[in-house]
Structure formats: structure tokens, C-alpha cells
Design a protein that fits this description.
Blueprint (H helix, E strand, L loop, with lengths): L3 H12 L18 H15 L38 H10 L16 H23 L1
Length: 136
């Protein structure tokens, strides 16, 4: 069986935090978000042999790289209430061998219009930059 000290050490190592407590919200208290949070969860799954098939990322952290499209179309994490992930929860999941969290009923659009909007913004900005450079 795993011990809390193993999980605390793992989280501290993954986040670089000076102090990690059993009830620290890994996202909000330790500043682990986006790709870093995703990497932490993937490493946790490998190191502690935890099945992540029931894991729903947007309840726990934000998406990486949002640039403004969310003001028109909110990303999934802004459509639901944040659920913290703590070392104590990770210990429980490690001992069970699976991500065992009952998520509240929710509805997220099938299409990510926030990402489409971000892509359009990037294309417009790049096109304007290229056009300006070409005119010089």
C-alpha cells in the first residue's frame, strides 16, 4: 500500500513547490495548471498504476494556451465548478488503482468553439503581420 509521504514527495517533485500539504489544491494552491497539470496526472498514473479512464480534466485545471476566444465561447473548465485535486485524493486513488471521483452532471459542447475562435485570431494576426511586412 502507498503512504501519504510518497504522494506528498511525488507532488512536491512534480510541482517544485516548497511545501505540500495533504489538502493542498494542486492546481490553485500549488500553481500547477494546463500542460503541467496534465503531465503531473499522467506521471501519477504511471508511477502509482492508476487507471485514468474516469478522469475529466476540465474539472481540475484550465486548458493550455487560451488567448482570448473564451470571452465569446468559454472553454470547458469555465463551464463547470472547479473540483480540487489534493494529495490526499491522489493517495486514495493510488490505493484503489483507479481515478474514483463522481463528477456532477454537466454538459459541455461537443465542438470546442473557443479553440476555433483562438485559431481564427491567430490566423488574422499572422496574416496582418505578413501583409504589413510585405508592404515595406
Amino acid at each position: 500500500m502507498y503512504e501519504l509521504s510518497q504522494i506528498l514527495h511525488f507532488v512536491k517533485d512534480q510541482t517544485g513547490a516548497d511545501e505540500v500539504f495533504e489538502n493542498s489544491d494542486i492546481n490553485e494552491d500549488l500553481g500547477c495548471d494546463g500542460d503541467d497539470f496534465d503531465e503531473l496526472i499522467a506521471n501519477f498514473s504511471r508511477e502509482f498504476n492508476v487507471d485514468l479512464s474516469a478522469y475529466v480534466w476540465y474539472f481540475h485545471c484550465a486548458d493550455e494556451g487560451d488567448i482570448g476566444g473564451w470571452s465569446i465561447f468559454p472553454p470547458p473548465n469555465e463551464r463547470i465548478k472547479h473540483i480540487p485535486v489534493t494529495p490526499l485524493m491522489l493517495l486514495e486513488f493510488a490505493q484503489k488503482g483507479k481515478w474514483d471521483l463522481n463528477y456532477p452532471e454537466h454538459k459541455v459542447p461537443k465542438r470546442r468553439y473557443d479553440l476555433i475562435t483562438n485559431l481564427i485570431i491567430i490566423i488574422v494576426v499572422l496574416s496582418l503581420s505578413i501583409y504589413k511586412c510585405a508592404r515595406k
